[in-house]
Amino acid sequence: VTGVVGRAELLSSIFLLAAFLAYTKSTGRDHSIVWAPIALTVILVAAATLCKEQGITVVGICCVHEVFLAQGFSLPMLLDTLRQVLQGKDGFPYALLQTLLKFDNPAAVSVIPTRQLTFNYLLPLNAWLLLNPSELCCDWTMGTIPLVESVLDLRNLATLLFYTFLGLLAYYSLRYSHSSSKTVIMALSFIVLPFIPASNLFFPVGFVVAERVLYVPSMGFCVLVAHGFKIISHKGYLKKISWLVIGLLLATHAVKTFKRNWDWESEYTLFTSALKVNKNNAKLWNNVGHALENQNNYDTALRYFLQATRVQPDDIGAHMNVGRTYKNLNKSREAEDAYLVAKSLMPQVIPGKKYATRVAPNHLNVYINLANLIRANESRLEEADQLYRQAISMRPDFKQAYISRGELLLKMNKLSEARDAYLRALELDRTNADLWYNLAIVNIEMKDPSEALKNFNHALELNPRHKLALFNSALLMQESGEPKFWPEANRRFLIYVEEEPEDANGYFNLGMLAMDANENVAAERWMKRAIGLQAGFRSALFNLALLYSQSKREIDALPALDELLRHHPEHIKGLILKGDILMNHKKDTNGAKACFERILSVDPTNVQGKHNLCVVYFEERDLPRAERCLEETLALAPNEEYVKRHLSIVRKRLGGVGVDQSESLDSSQSDKRTSGKSTKEISDIEEKRAAALKRLEEIERILSGD
Fold first, then answer.
1. Structural domain containing residue 684
2. Residue 664: which residues within 8 A CB-CB, separation 6 or more?
3. Higher-pLDDT residue of 671, 698
């Protein structure tokens, strides 16, 4: 026995035995009451019950000990004790079980006499598991044990034989008063009383047979075996045979236990071993499929899920498993068909009726899964929304349906409805950080950054290391342009890169914050870190080059720009910046000219690229061509003052050259001064443009998701 339930069963059994042993010390030699063992018994009974509810049955075992061993009472008192226990059965937690599904315990929802015949047949079946624990199975639900639907079923003979043998044992223990009968009484109390709550006889439980509930009854069974061996071994002619038989029994059971341990090595080995015993339980086929699915072995898992649907065609969960596996195999059409079969098995929707107690909650996921599948098709968004609403109508407190519907409505740009869906989900669960995060995303789409930031903060209060909330809230603070938010944004980005150290975007945004704060050394470090993680990171490479340019390190910017243009040869802002550096700092007019011509080959209407090419013509002293170029630029941007001014300078130069050669030299000198002045003006414009370029690049990165 393993797992949480198995451990609880073992703990309960230990406390149950300890409680019984303590109670046996509560009667003094003169039949007086010793209170210390009784107080200890009460504590141990409470511990046994807290571990597993059937621990309370030790009270009945103690009652049997008190009546027949301590007080020496007889049959009438036994009948009265049993009557009191049965009258108090409603106190057991089992009486408060939820409505059962037919897949868990088919007999529980069967008609008379099938229900009674099947439940009584389970008694000899459990006894057989004690007598011959050969074919063990981890799950006995669903179709493991066929229903006993008729009194003519031969399995009823096993029921009669069981009751006959149990009656003989009870008669023997009550008829005689010697020590042997008292041993049998206590053995029967250990077998019967702890088993009653799980027997299905007085109230149905959520399983047909469960080997774990036989742990305490097996103690009583072992007492019977040991007692029988003691009697037989004292008979001279049977002594050797009895020792041989008991030795063989212990050896075979030890080997079986050792072999069984290997079945519990993993989920896969456990459920495959169960399939060797029982192939009519769809849950076992599903569980093997789940084990394979966890190993990403979807093809093999699909075969098991399909077999589950063949064994139990009306099992909604099996069809959902098939659909999910087809989806994982990227077979959307087959996945949809499987989900539609599962959906067809759901009860029909009755407006205004709540289905929370009628349908297994996990079965409602068929609507969510089907809607999530079909909403990938833009033309079927309304159909997906209808499925979400149907799930909500069947269970108004279905939180996941509101969350998924909110995501869909956001995709459909129905922002108010998406917000309402998330608000309704928050009414059901205000401690869900993901819900607050999703609501913040809706606020951003609704152009309400202040409310978005509040909801991001709610998410981070609930989960201070919520990665998406950290990143997006910090980005929102950064984009606000308000310096008062920068320290907190920086702190959140730092936490984010701790959580996601391989995400280049976190380091890039730290670099952008540092640039905003004029912390150039830190900005350079973060940008290089981002580029190291993501080769060809467009935004990081450009902003690193821009950082060098603004820091008067234009030559250092060239390697970054070369790397940028190697990965993104049509990056216009990168070409502009490289052309400016080549022309103004390297005096490489040919290189600059190639950059600007490349820009115009990509975008012939680019004003800045066109203007800078005109400046190259001017530097090459090709004034007529510079004039034509500036005229064309002015036609593209008639309101740009700097284009008009530069065209005027070129025309004056052309006019001065045409008058007098000697004045031309003078004009040349004056042109140099004018040129110097105009260069300063251009430099001022370029500096402003560089700042604008940085912001434009950041916005472009956010929009493109780079």
1. 534-706
2. 656, 657
3. 698
Helix (H, G, I), strand (E, B) or coil at 256: helix
Is residue 628 one of the residues assigned to a domain?
Answer: yes
The end-to-end CA distance of the chain, in Å, is 53
Are 212 and 198 a contacting pair, CB within 8 Å? no
Q: What is the CATH number of the domain that holds 549?
A: 1.25.40.10
Separation CA 230–CA 246 (nearest Å): 11
Q: SS3 helix, strand, coil % of the chain, rounded to 5?
A: 75, 0, 25
Give the residue with greater pLDDT, 655 vs 585. Answer: 585
Q: Determine the Cα–Cα distance for residues 412 and 386; give it in Å rounded to an integer.
A: 13
Domains: count for the chain: 2
Per-residue pLDDT tens for 104-151? Answer: 666 666 778 887 888 888 889 888 888 888 888 887 777 778 888 888
In this structure, is residue 479 part of a structural domain? no
Residue 187 structure tokens? 């053995």
Most confident range (mean pLDDT) of 92-106, 162-176, 441-455 is 441-455
Dump pLDDT digits (tens) for 391-435.
998 888 899 999 999 999 999 999 999 999 999 999 999 999 999
Give pLDDT, residue 619: 87
Residue owning tokens 């499987």: 338
Note whether residue 205 is domain-resident: yes
| Residues 308/282, Cβ–Cβ less than 8 Å | yes
Domain boundary among 208, 233, 258: 233
What is the SS3 assignment for 491? helix
Write out the E strands in 532-616: none
Phi/psi-derived region of residue 552, left when phi > 0, alpha when psi is between -120 and 50, beta in every other case: left
Helix (H) or strand (E) holding 52: none
Residue with tokens 């509040």: 454
For residue 79, is pLDDT > 80? no
- The whole-angstrom separation of Cα 140 and Cα 134 is 15
Instruction: Please determine, for residue 590, whether its predicted confidence score (pLDDT) is greater than 80.
Output: yes
Both tokens assigned to 691: 């700042």
Supply φ then ψ for residue 33, to 5 degrees: -90, 130
What pLDDT shows up at residue 675?
Answer: 32
d(CA 641, CA 621): 23
Amino acid at 404: S
Which residue type sits at 184? Answer: V
Question: Of the given ranges (87-91, 212-216, 242-246, 478-482), which has the lowest mean pLDDT?
Answer: 87-91
How many Cα atoms are found within 13 Å in the side-chain-facing hemisphere of 350? 6
**For residue 113, is the peptide bond before it cis, meaning its omega torsion is within 30 degrees of 0?**
yes
pLDDT reported for residue 692: 41
Beta carbons within 8 Å of 66's beta carbon, 6+ residues apart: 23, 27
Q: Is the pLDDT of residue 682 over 60?
A: no
33 forms beta bridges with 27
564 pLDDT tier (thresholds 50, 70, 90): very high
- Lowest-confidence pick of 35-39, 292-296, 506-510, 630-634: 35-39
Start-end of H helices in 375-503: 381-394, 399-411, 415-428, 433-445, 449-462, 467-480, 486-499
- How far is the C-alpha of 39 from the C-alpha of 44, rounded, in Å? 9
Q: Evaluate whether residue 480 is within a structural domain.
A: no
Q: CA-based diameter of the chain, in Å?
A: 147
Contact 663, 650 (CB under 8 A): no
- What is the dihedral sign for C-alpha 176, 180, 186, 189? negative
Distance CA 350, CA 364 (A): 15
Last residue of a domain, one of 211, 233, 255: 233
Measured distance CA(459)–CA(486) in Å, rounded = 20
